[in-house]
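Bug: token stream looks shifted between consecutive jobs. Job 1:
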Amino acid sequence: MIVMLNNRDNVVVIDCQLAGISGDMLLGALIDLGADIKKTVNAIQSIKDYLRGCNQLEVSVHDVTRCGFSAKKVTVTIKETLKQRTGGELKTALLNCLKNLKLSHEAYSFAVSSLETLIEAESKIHGENLEKVHLHEIGSADTLADIIGAATALEDLGFLKKARIYSTPAAVGGGLFNFSHGIVPSPAPATLEILRMNNFPFSGGSINTELTTPTGAALLVNMVDEVVQFYPPMRPVSTGYGAGAKDFKEFPNVVRILLGERYGQTFLLDKIYVLETNLDDVSGEIIGYTINRLLEKGAKDVSVVPTITKKNRPGHILRVIVSKEDVEPLARILMEETGTLGVRVVPYNRFVLSRQIVHIEVNVDGIREKVAVKIARDQDGKIIQIKPEYEDAKRIASKTNKSLRKILNLIKCETTKVLSEGENK
């Protein structure tokens, strides 16, 4: 068993840029890092007690080699009488299983969100209701095995509470492959939709086969705090390798997870870009519309500063905070919408707090609603801010006829309570 470091000093990097990621590969790497095998296997095997049509579910963990690299391989053997299930059936089974396992709030939320991500992707692809969408490959007990196993292993390692998790862009493979709906290109439609919904970067190649699976993608986007091209500053502590089912000749079919300790900075360091332009002949309607377009297309923030321009005319400075990849497209929007002839671009380094989205269920006058809440922590894990999602709070305020201020306070109190209970488990 590995020795965990203190609080948020833990840095975890999921390296899936070569062989992609699947649920069993992730699970194998977490076990190789030191997650309790017995606890994880028992959690997975309990699924058969809650999933209709699952008559047998056995789990084995063994050492294999992939292109000469030693890795852990997790094999789930299932006997099922059902070939497909609906999204509602799979979610009900997961919730009942999680209640029995009594996982922490973070692990519970991670597992539920991962399955919801899968179901939502399938729903959008097939144009069916979330509860009634028919699931084929991902409707198998194998999907719940990956989700329950990953949630249990992550909790055992402490990664969901005491680590900042990074990932490289995911390799998705290429070529064509067969599945329940016939021949499709890689990445599979569900995998592509999951990555698209979460704005998660990926790359094709370097082999004509599926590398990242829908379940692997769903687990990845719900676990990762930040995607990086290069590893962040860290002192390496331990490495885990999880093997895929195939053994390629071209490269080792493994996902690598590195646990380390951050160094060199007290806060998380982020790089952003600021776009600026001076406007002295643009109406308020145009400025307002431009702000909406910028935010819709990914701007982190937009502000308008009153100023005096040439010939002592009143004007505005339109200032936009963006990520590197959004510099050119958002500069173009500024030019197209305002008619400005130039946009200043200035890079900045900034200190940021670690951010995590959790989903909390609140009860207001008998009305139960699920809300998203952003939790901001410093590097020692101390909560600095709890911020409910505005649209969720607005919806509840409208339904209950209560003030938005009261609803926001209620959500914050409930979130604090749930987080406190989770830490005390």
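Job 2, same session, no restart:
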Amino acid sequence: MLASAPREPRPPVEPYKVKVVERIRLPSREEREAALRTAGYNLFQIRSDDVYIDLLTDSGTSAMSDRQWAGMMVGDESYAGSRNFAHFEATVQELTGFPFVIPAHQGRAAENLLFSLMGRPGTVIPNNMHFDTTRAHVERNGSKAVNLAIPEAYDLASPHPFKGNVDVPKLEDLLRAGPSKVPLVMVTLTNNTGGGQPVSVANLTAVRDACRAAGVPLYLDMCRWAENSFFVREREGGMSGRTIPEIGRLCFDLADGATMSAKKDGLVNIGGFVATRDAALAARLKEQLIVFEGFPTYGGLARRDLEAASIGMREACDLDYLAHRIGQVRYLASLLDEAVIPYVRPPGGHGIYLDVRRFLPDLPSADFPGQSLVIELYREGAVRTVEVGAVMFGDGAPGDPAPLELVRLAIPRRVYTSAHLAYVAEVVRRVWDRRATIRGVRMVEAPERLRHFTAKFQPNG
């Protein structure tokens, strides 16, 4: 009896059809080389017209639905008291249960509002893992950002289903200093820095209990809360029969507030908010908002964008959408598996994170191997990705190692097809096949904070 041929990975079927298309162009190799030189070998500095498949970020890069575009047409651009804010506020209150909702133009603006009031010198703010702007806002206001993810988060091959979980014993040790030293605890859903990995409701409950015992408020970074809820529904006992909003409320009911970039699970191109149960804090947040963002019923946004976010947050709860969304990530992972290419396992919620230390084991941190890999993926096929390693998170002198050395392939929502992802996998495979020839780079220019956005590099050798 003949053995059956290996089954090709089955791409997920889109739960939508296409109404509008945007032309993309594959620049020639000569154009790609010129673009790299002009950009100082920093992919953030490359023009979008010179990118074929853009996996730099899933933030603000989603395709909006027909209902969202229709909602944009009923924007009430009144300076104060817009009906679109009333809809936005009611949506956030219904989904989260937080009574006070303060809009902002994006997630980092929400972080600035929160940490400028709660952070202060001599304090520590723990998180499962701070992402780049979160850490920058914590440290800009004098606090120290501390990561407390479980050990499995650093074992990139571990199959642990909730690698975004907080190490509760370590958190309890930190909380013994009390509210004067720990003004708040934050948990990021999903854990972006560690590979888009989810947090369980059970772990979040234990975190809440530790915070309550210490008298310290718990806040969530909820920008990917719907994706986190999908994993909880799939992996955590007793959750399979619950809806995404029900699972979300289980998490939000444990917290005192949240920040959100609506550019992720709000399915919009701009927007965010801070939400809280603390009336006094909300009043102070609104004062800050007026100074830096705008009036409390628009928060630096066009009111039509508030309407689109209201609709998008509900669309993000749809199981068919989420199954396709997570399915795209898993499909790309399955294509990489065929070539035995190392990445963070299990695949996360919004992208694939290549394991750079196994991809380029001979390049030391001083050679910025993650940045080198990002450059090669663009050079090979005009695929733009982002380094999450020594450039983004290395402390001290350039080249100091980071806890993790990753390259993130963040998949925009409702934008690319399975054929696009197959192309990405082929580009990664071609770079993998010639990995022994890849040289490192050196950093020749960098700002003090958030250097990965504007730093410049030169190839070694």
